[in-house]
Design a protein that fits this description.
303 residues, alpha/beta, 13 strands, binds zinc ion
């Protein structure tokens, strides 16, 4: 799908998270509309420029490719997900997050939670088991439908909507969690600000995003450089998994200072190295020690 020339390219003026003008940012290199692979000099495609914000470490592309039809990106036939075990709740699923939310929130009566990008509702079920009255919304029609028919989510608790259009009562939730969302939206700052509006004072927001410090991307970029190209592995705005942004903790710190919240807790998840497993024994501890894991998880508190 991404091979079709169906994009407009939008120039960026400022860093989405901290507002620094784009001219002050550092060019990391170029990203094509397909994986660069092991022989990057042979790969043909449309390129855009990847930059890193010098102030907050946010990585994004300028210009930003916007598909003519968003279904070109996310119109995956959902049947490819519908294997029987996809509908099973793994033991302890989202349990760590629920426990941390409860610990950060302390003793509050009538806890209410909202899942942004609820998928088929697994985190909603975990939150309900953890004592929250849980609501959610999910943009995909088939996922929304399966959440209700297969997972038993109550229809009045789950809307089918995108974050840009959905509405809830202001200050009506204690906990908001973003599933795999923020790296896919064009305006993550606006998404956070909108969801902050739904939180009560002292409420907590949980966000997991790709880290712009991921060590494996640095290795990949070095490899592309040694092969005589200026290609980089950061972001993937025109091919799967369609990540538009990578975040740094500083991106949230700067954003917090402008939008009335603080960072209550953060952690890095090392996840995969995508290299032969012999390297894992060395690289995983290094990533843990240096904060260069694949995923960044932040817990934000509304002030
Ligand atoms: Zn920035």
């Amino acid at each position: 799908m991404s091979d079709q020339l169906r994009y407009t390219f939008r120039r960026i003026t400022h860093c989405n998270m901290c507002g620094t003008p784009v001219e002050e940012n550092r060019v990391l290199g170029r990203r094509l509309n397909r994986p660069h692979g092991r022989h990057p000099r042979r790969v043909i495609g449309i390129a855009t420029t990847v930059v890193r914000c010098r102030s907050c470490g946010l990585v994004y592309t300028d210009p930003q490719p916007v598909p003519f039809d968003i279904q070109d990106h996310y119109g995956v036939p959902p049947e490819s997900y519908w294997k029987e075990d996809y509908f099973q709740m793994p033991e302890g699923y989202f349990g760590g997050e629920v426990r941390r939310a409860r610990a950060l929130l302390g003793d509050r009566p009538g806890l209410r939670a909202l899942d942004v990008g609820a998928g088929i509702g697994k985190a909603m079920i975990a939150l309900e088991l953890g004592g929250f009255e849980t609501h959610g919304f999910e943009p995909s029609k088939p996922f929304h439908e399966r959440a209700i028919t297969r997972m038993g989510i109550r229809p009045e608790r789950l809307k089918q909507a995108m974050i840009e259009e959905v509405e809830y009562e202001p200050a009506s939730f204690d906990f908001v969690t973003f599933g795999v969302v923020l790296e896919h939206v064009y305006d993550p700052s606006a998404a956070i600000v909108k969801a902050m509006g739904w939180l009560r004072k002292g409420g907590v927001m949980h966000i997991e995003v790709p880290s712009s410090r991921w060590l494996i991307n640095r290795f990949a970029n070095l490899y592309y450089r040694l092969r005589g190209t200026d290609l980089v592995a950061n972001t993937s705005p025109m091919h799967e998994p369609y990540h538009l942004y990578e975040f740094d903790l500083e991106s949230f710190r700067r954003h917090a200072a402008r939008h009335g919240y603080s960072i209550a807790f953060h952690e890095q998840y090392v996840c995969k190295t995508f290299l032969p497993s012999v390297f894992d024994a060395i690289l995983k501890p290094v990533m843990r020690l240096t904060g260069t894991g694949m995923q960044l998880c932040v817990w934000l508190r509304k002030e």
